[in-house]
């Protein structure tokens, strides 16, 4: 059986966090990185697993730093116009970290991708995102607005799944997502174990739907999770500068939201209305 699988998305689908060179402390900025540039990742692992049974054509169009509009306007056209059997569409976290965050535009672009891919026969592979702020250990005042944005992306994916079907993994259903060894040194990208578990979860769901897969993705890892010392070194060299670059986008908005919620007599309903105003 021939199987055409295309992958769209951001650095997680590129494979950032799962280095081919064996280093667990590689620079994970991945600026402009594309699949095959030193990264393996869950999509490649899934494709290899599918190839144990099928003749697989795998094309990974993901790029690091991609937002939903980038996927729709740049990656989607690269897939051509022929039939597709599987299409993964995992993107949206980068959008939540930018001042240009627009949930309406995100929804429109996601629907555009889903409609075109499913019209070509693709079974969609998507996710529902977990609370990234909990993984990062962010302070409550910053974690809450970030989660609010992530939930708006999740709602768009909920509606997309209800309309176009496919396989959707709810990351919050997997307790290991909140364990340190799931993540690479930056805690934003899955590490080797995280990528393997993601590939395995999709393979298991495909098998439930009747797709024969002789060899499921392995969960055994060749590399250890970053040590506390490596964590600390990375935080100083890479983490703090990354936060600084993002500060101009997310932090002013988060601060305004925090002030709104702390005003005397403010109610959750009023705070939510203010959030919607700020997002507009």
Note the topology.
Elements: E1 2-9, H1 11-14, H2 42-50, E2 55-60, H3 68-78, E3 86-90, H4 93-96, H5 103-119, E4 123-128, H6 132-136, H7 140-164, E5 167-170, H8 192-208, H9 228-262, H10 268-279
Parallel strand pairs: 1-2, 1-3, 3-4, 4-5
Helix pairs in contact: 2-8, 3-5, 5-7, 7-9, 9-10
Domains (count): 1
The total beta strand count reads 5
What spatial form do the alpha-carbon principal axes imply?
Answer: globular
Low-confidence stretches are: 23-29, 265-280
First-residue to last-residue Cα separation: 48 Å
Biggest pleated-sheet summary = 5 strands, parallel
Fraction of helical residues: 40-55%
Can you say what the CATH homologous superfamily is? SGNH hydrolase
Structural class: alpha/beta
Share in β-strands: 5-15%
What are the key terms here?
disordered C terminus; 10 helices; 10% strand; single chain; globular; five-stranded parallel beta sheet; alpha/beta; 280 residues; Rossmann fold
